[in-house]
Amino acid sequence: MGFFNLLQVASMPIIQVLLISALGAFMSTRYFDHLLSPDFRKSLNKVVFITFTPSLIFASFAKSVSLDDMISWWFMPVNVGLTFLIGGILGWILVKSLKPNLKLEGLIIASCSAGNMGNLPIVIIPAICDEKGGPFGRSDACHSNALSYASFSMALGGIFIWTHTYQTIKSRSLRYKALEAAGILKIPNKDLDANAETLLLKGGNNENTILEVPTSDYIGDTENQSIQEQDQSAVSKNRKESSWYRAIEVLRHFVAELLSPPAIATFFGFLFGTVAWLKNLIVGDYAPFAVIQDTLVILGNGTIPCITLLLGGNLTQGLKSSSVKPLILISIIIARFFVLPVIGFFIVKAAANFGLLPLDPLFQYVLVMQYVMPPAMNISTMAQLFDVGNEECAVILLWTYVAAAIALTVWSTFLMSVLS
């Protein structure tokens, strides 16, 4: 397969995303009478979160994956987990090095760790199989395996995105809102970054936060000393209770995330995909409840267009008021499309050399490409849910998807030459 043919295959899904985003951007301007207004985008985002995304996850996974497949593909969950772990470490390094505004911390870590494991693999990987002279064998067999790999990848990505990434964005969004509610962010000329937050917050959580507030002039020295002693006593008591408190908070957050609509859909997708008699109830031409699966497919088909339109709608304001510096964008692109894929390539090659992977070269191709995917568009859904960094998220996704058109092509060409 020639370079320009591969360029067309790899870039078409990205171009589609950019075109739909541009439409969403125009729909939020006065030329379309502000059809995608901020209030409407927020309402539509909730519909995507509660209805469309769970439908897409369940319908794809229940249909395409069986128990035998999951057993033979056991390394794929490990690989997806490594993409989030290594990407999260890279994002954390960028945060500590660049010291961005607190609003951007969660977005940077999420953009480096959470790749688009859903719609892009489902479009790109089977399309490669359809090209004449491809390195992955017969077109029909390759296409069937590619759809199964991509569906399994999407389901696994949904688990990590709506647990790891969701918690990452949620925790930093709540900290940002806590500082905003306390009036700290309203201080003139205050660029709040990680160092400033350390000086402003004590105790590590919102409930036990102590703010350094200047004492009024009319309070005497004795009263000041008494207040300081009370504060020290409260801090000491909080430290003794912190271990149990944090453990309970972690467990509470984990349970809450498992009960989110996408996570519930993932669980039932696993259940119906692996239990044969349950799968036969809804999947197949003669399934008694096939209408349920068909309905979920219809709902799931609305996920990607809605998310992409919302991305474009947020972009209109983001280009005007976004605080994302070029250095941050360049750093995310380098980490996401160069450093992370290089590490992932050596991990997959090592696993193959130790005999941990199936002999199918397409499986190895999918594993490496999981490290190359641009940031998941669900990040914009989460930013919209917590109403923190919407415009900044749109700008990050815009430029990373532009860079992805080149990165996906280059890495695809390299992997095909290595694996064929």
Automatic annotation (TrEMBL):
Pfam families linked: Mem_trans
Chief location of this protein within or outside the cell: endoplasmic reticulum
Organism annotation: Lupinus angustifolius (Narrow-leaved blue lupine)
Keywords for the protein's UniProt record, in alphabetical order: Auxin signaling pathway, Endoplasmic reticulum, Membrane, Transmembrane, Transmembrane helix, Transport
Record-annotated membrane-spanning stretches: 6-26, 47-65, 71-95, 107-128, 148-166, 254-278, 290-315, 327-348, 394-419
Record-given protein name: Auxin efflux carrier family protein
Family the entry assigns: Belongs to the auxin efflux carrier (TC 2.A.69.2) family.
Entry GO CC: endoplasmic reticulum membrane
Keyword Translocase: no
Entry function: Involved in cellular auxin homeostasis by regulating auxin metabolism. Regulates intracellular auxin accumulation at the endoplasmic reticulum and thus auxin availability for nuclear auxin signaling.
Annotated PANTHER family: AUXIN EFFLUX CARRIER FAMILY PROTEIN, PTHR31651
InterPro entries linked to this entry: Mem_transp_PIN-like (IPR004776), PILS1/3/4/5/7 (IPR045033)
Keyword Transmembrane helix: yes
Membrane topology: Multi-pass membrane protein
Cell compartment(s), UniProt: Endoplasmic reticulum membrane
Source organism superkingdom: Eukaryota
GO biological process: auxin-activated signaling pathway; endoplasmic reticulum to cytosol auxin transport
